[in-house]
Amino acid sequence: MRNPAQPGSLETVMIKYALFARLEARPGKETEVQQFLEAGLAMAREEKTTPIWFALRLTPTTFGVFDAFEDEAGRQAHLSGPIAQALMAKAPELFVKPPAIEPVEVLGLKNDAPAS
User: Fold this and answer.
1) Averaged pLDDT, 53-79
2) Pick from 6, 24, 31, 45: most CB atoms within 10 A?
């Protein structure tokens, strides 16, 4: 992450806390799940404590969300925030079973993506 106080320098913030959610679409709901996850990006951009968020397609019917946080408080805020609420509200309609949301620990991170 770039430190705005020192242009060009890198801020050393270790991202250790993360979540991985595995989502299995109901038959015929794959496009709706994809659209739902794509719409989640706008919500993720609003979460100040969620610096990393990915929506993934693992197989034609299996999707995932990976997000990471600087601390446990950020992870907990995300779990009670608007994305999680929307996910659980749509779960019965879109998914074969409730989303499996697992806390994970990030052991290493490389991010050379340009700042936007």
Assistant:
1) 96
2) 24
